[in-house]
Amino acid sequence: MEFPHLHLSIDQRVATLTIERPEALNALNKAVIQSLHQAVEWLDTQSEVRVVILTGSGAKSFVAGADIAEFASFGPKEGEALSETGHRLLFDRVAAAQKPYIAAINGYALGGGLELAMACHVRISSSSARLGLPETSLGLIPGYGGTQRLVQLVGKGRAMEMMLSASMLDAETAERYGLVNQVVEGEHLLEAAQGMAAKFLKNSGQAHSAVIQAVNAATEGGPGFAEEQRIFGACFGTTDFAEGTTAFLEKRKPSF
Ligand code: CAA
Q1: Looking at ligand 1, which residue's alpha carbon is closest to its atom 8?
Q2: What is the DSSP letter of 168?
Q3: What share of the chain has pLDDT > 90, as a percent?
Q4: Per-residue pLDDT tens for 105-118?
Q5: Which residues does the chain have with pLDDT short of 70?
Q6: pLDDT value at position 29?
Q7: Whose CA is nearest to atom 28 of ligand 1?
Q8: CA torsion, ordered 75, 237, 159, 163, to nearest 10 deg
Q9: DSSP labels for 1-52?
Q10: Stretch (H or E) spanning 109
């Protein structure tokens, strides 16, 4: 099976899905999100696939976020729709998948990239990766579930600091925070993800689906997710959003 902008391989009941848009550090534009949606839907129907590893192409980036150039001219309604569509097609869909997703974070996991890793069920990071939610540097908030899932993973204080400062964590700090389960040298990343998948494979796939469903009953779909979409949209009407996105595209620092 083939999906645009993705590479899929299946070996011994483990699928590895690689996002391939290296010219934009694997940033998530509409086409990549649609393609990932189709791949996740398809993988859920494949009974011979029991675990999915999600990673990015190249050594530099897992995913550097939502595609800023694509949404820079959006207004509030389009911004809210972007967030709602992303949640529905990809982020909530991965979180609710019937089999475990392991994010293998091979480099930058920023904004929508970290949000995608957090929608996965567990995370392994290369030691050189950098992780963060830098949306406030663009005059935005995280709009793909980050305001909710980051708090769940690292606690409110650390999540607030990360989002308010827009700064990146190194992998070691991310592990200490509980944001990633394990850190390994980059050349061993996929091997480590396959090792974790092998541990999962010893156990019941039906029980894995049941664990995901039971855990999600407490952590997914709360009112904060809908609020995030509404507030993300509202940010698109601010002067800081205009300045933040323009500054990124002009490769300069924003002046807030
Ligand atoms: N969207 C679109 N293009 C992006 C991108 C993004 N999120 N991140 C990187 N790129 C592009 C750059 O524009 C550049 O393209 P050109 O070569 O055509 O100029 C190319 O990828 C390489 O990037 P850089 O030249 O910037 O590489 P660098 O090594 O100097 O910096 C980086 C790397 C620190 C990751 C930097 O690219 C960066 O800060 N990227 C943006 C990170 C970010 O703000 N992400 C959040 C996006 S908003 C979001 O995700 C909203 C949401 O929650 C829904």
Answers
A1: 64
A2: P
A3: 100
A4: 999 999 999 999 99
A5: none
A6: 98
A7: 25
A8: 100
A9: ---TTEEEEEETTEEEEEE--GGGTT-B-HHHHHHHHHHHHHHHH-TT--EE
A10: strand 108-110
115 an active-site residue?
A: yes
Residue 188: the pLDDT is: 98
CATH number of 6-201: 3.90.226.10
Quick one: 214 exposed, middle or buried, by C-beta within 10 A (0-12, 13-18, 19+)? exposed
Ligand 1 pocket test: which of 57, 63, 68 has the largest number of ligand atoms within 8 Å of its C-beta?
68
Confidence at residue 38, expressed as pLDDT on a 0 to 100 scale: 98
d(CA 106, CA 117): 11
Atom of ligand 1 nearest to the CA of 137: 44
Which pLDDT score, from 0 to 100, does residue 37 have? 98
- How far does the centroid of ligand 1 lie from the alpha carbon of residue 45, in Å? 33
The set of residues, in sequence order, having a beta carbon less than 8 Å from that of 41 and lying 6+ positions away, is: 93
23 included as an active-site residue? no
- The pLDDT of residue 79: 98
Task: Dig out the tokens for 29 from the structure.
Answer: 């534009």
The response to whether residue 69 sits with its C-beta less than 6 Å from ligand 1 reads yes
C-alpha 38 – ligand 1 centre gap (Å):
25
Q: How far, in Å, CA of 76 to CA of 97, rounded?
A: 30
- Options 115, 175, 220, 228, the catalytic residue: 115
| Residue 74 burial by Cβ neighbours in a 10 Å radius (0-12, 13-18, 19+) | middle
Give the closest residue (by CA) to ligand 1 atom 41.
Answer: 64
Distance 28 CA to ligand 1 centre (A): 10
* H helical segments located in 46-101: 68-71, 76-86, 92-95
CB of 124 shorter than 6 A to ligand 1: no
> Is the pTM here over 0.85, yes or no?
yes
